[in-house]
Amino acid sequence: MGRKWNNIKEKKASKDANTSRIYAKFGKEIYVAAKQGEPDPESNQSLRFVLERAKTYNVPRHIIDRAIEKAKGGSEENYDELRYEGFGPSGTMIIVDALTNNVNRTASEVRAAFGKNGGNMGVSGSVAYMFDQTAVIGVEGKTSDEVLELLMEADLDVRDIMEEDDAVIVYAEPDQFHAVQEAFKAAGVSEFTVAELTMLAKSDVTLPDDAVAQFEKLIDVLEDLDDVQQVYHNVDLGE
Questions:
Q1: Which domains, ranges and CATH numbers included, belong to the chain?
Q2: What is the pLDDT of residues 102-122, one digit of tens each?
Q3: Could you tell me where the beta strands, DSSP code E, fall in 49-164?
Q4: Residue 2 reports pLDDT greater than 50
């Protein structure tokens, strides 16, 4: 545990900066969350979670507002939530989450991405058992001891607390996501460097040097697919 979550986020944001691809992905996710329930984060927990994530990526307000207004307007555009599991170079494990309005297209694109970059698709359950869904929340301006104290005061027993560069990262159960955030807010914290529900590998693997470039290309190709929202893996890339 203890991947460089802030660095991963910054790498993704930098990679997508010129194309605004990350904003498009958030726009779709916000629309889906708002359409599935009330388009109000106060009463729609799924929407509130997506908006908290979007804030850590500095998604522009007009992107958020446009997606919510689209949901309010009764758009008939529908998306299916899909999860693909597969193997990359050297038997590495990868999970791909997608939102799509064309299941056949997405399945074909994901399969092709694996096949052309040293990997192959697996069946449902072939990889997911090696991952745990985890809430990851990061803050600056606090020490790990201070974070531990404020979480104890809130009667929250989390999985782990780690210091990373200038931030403190909290790993918690998925259903503790909002409770941990509220504990921080009660302590005067209003900004989060990371606010994610992620699939965290139970153990990371280190690739041989000659497999790293191919693996990174596979991940980049998967992340660049329009229908793909998140890609998780079990490789320690020294981020």
A1: 5-72 (1.10.10.200), 80-129+202-233 (3.30.70.980), 130-201 (3.30.70.980)
A2: 999 999 999 999 999 999 999
A3: 80-87, 93-100, 120-122, 131-140, 160-164
A4: no
